[in-house]
Write a structure and sequence with these properties.
The chain is mainly beta and 126 residues long. Helix content is 11%, strand content 39%.
Length: 126
């Protein structure tokens, strides 16, 4: 969502990007006006089904860890512009660097943070 802080649309909000294929985490401004987001894990049908039901979400979160839905290891980060158009879509279905939560862009590299990895990920930009 974009929330307008000033100007003629101050106080209004609008959807910028929707229907992501995975659960997003952390939004960072990249170079050339694009935004990067880490997609932690592909969507889960059960979690999607209860997303609008806070009571059921609380029940699922209180289940023993062995019974809760697990994150699927699949590395995925995207960049998009101010209009919500995807400008970069980087994926590793093998999940060598799992549960990507953040992306920081420099001129030469993308640095990728994770919930579970023991190191900071880095990939050279083309």
């Amino acid at each position: 969502m974009r929330y307008w802080l000033e100007g003629s649309r101050k106080g209004q909000s609008e959807e910028v990007i929707s229907e992501l294929p995975a659960f997003p985490d952390n939004l960072n401004r990249g170079l050339n006006g694009q935004y990067w987001v880490g997609l932690v894990s592909p969507r889960n049908k059960l979690l999607d089904a209860i997303s609008e039901q806070p009571f059921l979400r609380k029940i699922v979160q209180r289940l023993p860890a062995s019974l809760r839905p697990k994150a699927t290891f699949y590395t995925h980060v995207i960049a998009f512009d101010d209009q919500g158009k995807i400008t970069q879509n980087l994926q590793d279905p093998e999940g060598h660097y799992p549960t990507a939560t953040s992306v920081f862009e420099t001129e030469s590299y993308l640095y990728i943070g994770s919930l579970t990895a023991e190191t900071l990920g880095r990939t050279k930009k083309d």
